[in-house]
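Bug report

Summary: structure tokens for H repeat-associated protein yhhI differ between web form and batch submission.
Environment: batch mode, default settings.
Steps: 1) Submit the sequence below via batch. 2) Compare with the web form result.

Sequence submitted:
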Amino acid sequence: AVISGAESWEDIEDFGETHLDFLKQYGDFENGIPVHDTIARVVSCISPAKFHECFINWMRDCHSSDDKDVIAIDGKTLRHSYDKSRRRGAIHVISAFSTMHSLVIGQIKTDEKSNEITAIPELLNMLDIKGKIITTDAMGCQKDIAEKIQKQGGDYLFAVKGNQGRLNKAFEEKFPLKELNNPEHDSYAISEKSHGREETRLHIVCDVPDELIDFTFE
């Protein structure tokens, strides 16, 4: 029901009523679909940790280890998840998104954005990333994370910014803008409308200079 767009207990009840014939393939439903209050009570009894474990195991079965997927890891703060009356801050979640299947295949909660560096390795432990490419933003550009991805048989594509000062400076020196405009480089551009504006992303593939091959993270 939720995958189909249900956002409330009433929506889930309505989904059940509409698809009762389909659901009867998996249960008797002698008394019809439970009312939304009953659905809410039953779901509230489920352990979030156990449900998450079941979800991850299910996604492992659905997410073939043979496909050449790109998995995007990113952190988001959930809107309206804070509670001032209980002095509870907003919930920050690190998610792994399968771009091939358009599905979140794993996620882990952190106390705040600064904990992403320690949370990403925990998230990687849940996933089968062999033969896949892992992408993260600049915060995930860490030596330990890169090594872990490689040990699990994956590859990575990291954003490099100021938190990796020496590496960022080396990139700026070795890849000046005029060099990136070299028509000999392979490139790919995509344009899309997002947040009320049109965005164009240009991807350029360059050979790694010998000086950067053994360059280490800070």
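Above is the batch result. After comparison, the two runs are identical; trailing whitespace caused the diff. The mean pLDDT is 84. The beta strands are 70-77, 92-98, 103-110, 133-136, 155-158, 186-194, 197-205.
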